Each structure stands twice: as structure tokens, then as C-alpha cells.
Amino acid sequence: MRVATRSVNPLDAVGTSLARAEETIALVPRATPLDVHAEMSRLTSAAARGQRLRPRFRYAPPPELGGVRRSLESVARETAAYGRAGALLARRAEELELEARLAERVGAPGFAELAAERFRAPRGGLEARVAEFVNAALSRGVPRPGAGTQLAASDDRGSTSSLLVKLVRGAAELALPIRVEVRREQLAIAATGHGLVAIRPGVLLPAAVAARIVLHELLSHALPRARSAYASSTLLRAGTAGCVESEEGRALLVEERAGHLDGARRSELALRHLAALAVQRGADFDETVRELGGRGADVHSAIEIAVRVHRGGGLAREIVYLPAYDEVRRALAREPELERWFERGRVGLDAARELRALEQELGAAAGQASNAVNTGA
């Protein structure tokens, strides 16, 4: 008796290797300084004394990723033979190889220049639209929390308003197989990884801000990752080139749809964008903080944003958020059918269009085959 076996797609193994490579590279965690919160406190004290701000960032020893980089280079070469799907994986491999080089050079000269290749500043009409967003967001000053606003610590397990409790409940409602972890040395208030959402403890947040973060992390990051585990396409599981940017852009669109992209959030995003631009222009830490202060940021916020964009030696990853938001927002207004690809996995905007085209071609081919069978051709 012959047992039917499922044919193995050679690209499935490639997708698995790319996902593992991303976890190994771990660019953002590696670029986060050790004892970052203690250093931010020191810098805040120095600012209060009127001193020039010179951060003393320390990093974990750089990893040896030569084997990972060679494997990614091999993937980029070999998958080109597998048509359009292979080309999408090849571009993702090239993107990850650049991230691996960055991870090896954290804290070293030339890091910022290399990071600017990975996280590119907008140009042309996109640059102009983002500048318009920034200027509008900051035109009336940076909003402050109103008097009497109730705050809850991000990791307060006893408060239904806390970020931790909202994340746990939100994940349960969505039946997401993820855990929520508290990570003391994390810089972001919340960050989604493979099977988890990590939060920074002790951050005092209004309930509305906690709710916004929950939407951002669960609907835009965690849910598509969880769904991708059951996707037929390895591209949705491995991620495509541009998936980081487009994912963050759609996350801001999700916030907007829920009414969370308010004045305070817009100002925060605008200040982060300006800080990232300053890094790519060659500004040092003190110059970045002063520029943010000149646009309305308080000292604590300016220092925290400057730490984000200068981590690793000038990662400036924040430069992609507003351009991606603009591009994804405009694209989905014209092509709403693209959104289902973002809901099913980790894709960039260009890759979503490629996947749509591939699906249409496969559907047309299947229809032709069915017609041929029915007509006896």
C-alpha cells in the first residue's frame, strides 16, 4: 500500500533558517546599553547641573556572526533560482546580513553610517509629507498629562489599568499563545518578540496609553506572528524585506483607527523622528537633546529619546516609523485588500503586493486546469 506523502518545498527550510538568524542577530537588544536606566538617571542629573551631556554607554561583548552572515549570503545567492518567492527571501536575507554586520559593530566607529543603510531617511515627496506631519504635531507645543490623570505602574499586577494586566487579558481574548515578561533593562515600554511581549517595569502610564500599547503590540505584532505559524507560505513566517518598517507603519495606523493617535502621541513620534534625523546628520548626544528641547520636549523625555536613537552608536531605527505610517496608510486607502497579508504574517508593503500577484497567478492557473479537466481537454 502506497502512503501519500506531502511534497517538501525547499523554500520552507530557507524560511526557517531566516527566522532563526533574526533571533540570533537580535540587533535591538544587542544595541541597548547595559545599565541603561542608571545611565539615563546620571544624564538627567548632569542636565540639571547644566553640564554637557556625554553618555557612558557600555555594551555586551560583540558576537561573532561570521557563520550567520555567510549562511545569509548563501541564501541570497541560491534562492534567486526559485522565482518571485525566492527573490523575496533573498532580499530578506540581504537585509538580515546587514543587521548581522551592525550587531558585530555595536559601539564601534562607523556604526551610525552602517545603520543609515539599514534604516533609511525618507526622500522626495515622502520626506515632505513626513516633515509636514512633524511640524503640525509640534506646532502647538508638546502636550503634558492633565492634572489629576490617574497613572498605573506598567508592571502592577494588582491594577486592571496596568499595561501588564491589559496585555495578559488582551492576549487571552485573542487566544494568543504568548507570555508577558517583565524585563528591567529594556528601553522600550513594550516590545514583541517570538512568543512573548516584554515590558519595562515601573513606567507610570495613564490607562489610555496602556490601552494604546496593547493594541500596538498585540494586533500589529503578536497576532500576525501567531497566525504566520499556520500559514502555507514560508514568506509569512520568515518575514520579508521591509517587514519591520511596514509592521511599525501599520501599527500606527491601527492606533489611529482606534482614536489613540492623539496630540501627545503625534508629538512623541515627531520628536523621535527629529532625533533620528539628527543622528544621521552627525549630531552628538548633547546636540540631539538640545534640539529636542528647542522643539518643546522636557529634559527627561529628550534624554530618553536621545538614548533610543543613539543606542549602539547611532541606530536611529525611529527614522522609519512615520515614513512607513504614511506609505502604509496611503497604500491601504487605495488597495485595502493588501491588509490581509499584514494580518497573516510579517510582510513589507512591496512584498504584500508581490504575494497578492502570486496568489492571483496561482488562482488563474488553477482555474485554467479545472476548465481543462471539465472540458476534457
Please provide the count of β strands.
Answer: 5
**How far do the termini sit from each other?**
31 Å
Write down the overall mean pLDDT: 91
The low-confidence runs, each spanning 5 or more residues with pLDDT under 50, are 1-7, 363-375
Q: How do the helices and strands follow one another from N- to C-terminus?
A: HHHHHHHEHEEEEHHHHHHHHH
Shape: globular
Main sheet: which strands, in order across?
Answer: 2-4-3
**Oligomerization state of this entry?**
single chain
For the sheet with most strands, the description reads: 3 strands, mixed
| SS element count, helices | 17
Structure description:
- The protein is mainly alpha-helical.
- The protein folds into two domains: 10-143 and 231-366, no CATH class; 144-230, no CATH class.
- It contains 17 helices and five strands.
- The chain has helices at residues 10-25, 27-31, 36-48, 66-78, 83-104, 111-118, 124-138, 163-173, 207-228, 234-238, 243-257, 263-281, 285-294, 299-310, 321-334, 339-344, 349-375; strands at residues 151-153, 179-182, 190-193, 196-199, 204-206.
- The strands form two sheets. It has a three-stranded mixed beta sheet with strand order 2-4-3, with helices on one face.
- The protein starts with 9 loop residues before the first helix and ends with a helix.
